[in-house]
Amino acid sequence: MRDEVISIDLADPVFTKTIRSRQNDKNGLRIVVYLKGNGQKVNLTGYSVKYEATNHLGQLIRDDAKIIDADNGAFEYTLSEEAVSMAGDWTAYFVLEKNDLERMTTPDIRISLKRDVREGNIKIENYISEFDKALENVEGYRKEIDDTNKKITDTNNKFVELTTLINAKDVQVPKITTESGGQTISVSDATKNILDEIAAKGAGMNTIYCATGVQNTIPSGKPWRGISYFNQNNIGFVIAKDSVGGFYTNYLNGNNGWTGWTNHVTKEDFVGWDFTVQGFKRTTDTDWIQMSINTANASNVEGRQVTRAKRSGDQVSVIGSLKNIKEGQVVFNVPTALRPAQQITDVVIIAGPPYSICEFNVETGGNVKIYNITTDKTIHFSINYLV
Q1: How far from 227 is each of 181, 218, 259, CA to CA, in Å?
Q2: How far apart (Å, rounded) are the C-alpha atoms in residues 158 and 26?
Q3: Same fold, 2-114 and 289-386
Q4: Cα–Cα distance, 148 to 154 (Å, whole number)
Q5: Contacts of residue 205, Cβ cutoff 8 Å, sequence gap at least 6
Q6: DSSP state of 123
Q7: Rounded distance, CA 201 to CA 234, Å?
Q8: So where are the chain's domains?
């Protein structure tokens, strides 16, 4: 087991160190934390400590951490099997709780999990073939790479020229981050208004960190990071991304004030829908499915449409032509996803002459039975019902 010893100060809104491990290395990394507040040790007596983490897919981990020295603010957490289940970047923090009356959290910690090569690996017998294909692709890209390298060289030369001009003319270049890469606007004080803090910066671009509890924060209430751009002191916009994947914008429209936070949806918000080139499609939708006819009780009509069914949204369509039908017997069965919540009964015209009608029934178990018909008759039907 590897130990990662870190020191966290609750007064610092940003923790810059990245902790690295590998996917599926369960119980392979222990994080030992010494907690401080404004440089002083935090006494953890009476507290419980939790580890919470989320990734870009919205997956959430919550585990118990172990206090090892309450007086000196020391605790440890060993990454569990769930905590290393998926490769990628995780946003984590530790939660300090006391008797359900007090809760505080540490700054965000970036956990980077490299991929386990056993996940999605290429079989050895296919590797050479894949490698050869890759080499063929590289051959075709050489000219593009050479052109790109030339563009990079030209860009670097222009950058040197620009730097020389800036230095010679003493041009001011505003920064959108601090020297260490931190944000230019950071608000953790719950008595402050994040929108006022952004507007106070005036014209220009800024990077932002906003903690939980700050006034006029995003609707989710989660900590977030973002950017703002104002081309005038009182006209501009802000983009915010919170710790659980929410995406928000706001706009300051001069004397009319802020327009209010807008929550923008993503593909993951459309649960139960698929995106296709034709547009949205419900995950329960089907193409036409040919029904298997119980030939002891009926048969398809040669040269006419075969019996089939399809679901679109909450509507099911069943079409076909049948003959040699035995009254009241199961002629076919519709699939589970296409079955009605209660029995469906419809009237179908019997081909003539003479013409007459029969009763077409779709039962909740999917069985289709036809009544008021004799075996010498033929029907052509188009039945629609809701599920």
Answers
A1: 13, 14, 17
A2: 49
A3: yes
A4: 10
A5: 174, 176, 227, 228, 229, 230
A6: P
A7: 10
A8: 2-114, 122-173, 185-264, 289-386
Res 123 pLDDT > 60: no
Residues 205-220, mean pLDDT to the nearest whole number: 96
Identify any residues that bridge with 379 across adjacent strands, giving them in sequence order.
322, 350
Q: How far apart are CA 333 and CA 337, in angstroms?
A: 12
Residue 107 neighbours by CB distance under 10 Å: 19
Categorise residue 339: left if φ over 0, alpha if ψ from -120 to 50, beta otherwise.
Answer: beta
Question: In 191-205, which positions are buried (b, 16+ CB within 10 angstroms) versus exposed (e)?
Answer: ebebbebbbebeeee
2-114: CATH topology: Immunoglobulin-like (2.60.40)
Which amino acid makes up residue 316?
V
Q: Are strands 60-64 and 40-41 parallel, antiparallel or unpaired?
A: unpaired
| pTM for the predicted model, two decimal places | 0.36
Widest distance between CA atoms in the chain: 101
Tokens of 195: 């929108």
pLDDT digits (tens, 9 = 90+) for 156-186: 888 888 777 767 765 556 678 888 889 999 9
